[in-house]
Fold this protein.
Amino acid sequence: MAGSGRAEVRVGRVQNDETEILAGLADGEKVVASGQFLLDSEASLSSIPARPIGGSPMASASAPSLYETRGRIEKITATSVTLSHEPVPAIGWPAMTMTFTLADPALARGLKAGDLVRFAFDQPGGVPTVRRIGKEATR
């Protein structure tokens, strides 16, 4: 295997169950793509830095992408929120429960466990970070 641990990747097209990786992996490098792996290893991987893509001019010139989905708050603190969220097809994520960093503690104001929310996040340095979050209208 060419690398080990976490790796920063640039995602291209997503179609059906396949995700195009534009940069960050060597040809033939094996990856783990299961959401269960993310749940089981999130705590142990959070202290391991991601292997950077490496000086690609396109990566430094482009603005980070925000990904948007809906979910239910399982736990919320001043610095993080644990969400059971719907799939995020743009990056090939299935529905799962995971913890996100809050970009600003003010985002947590007025929210509590059990709230249904719509949120937008990015992944600077491989750390899923909520940039916007708000309650979903109830029907």
In short: The two ends are 50 Å apart (CA to CA).
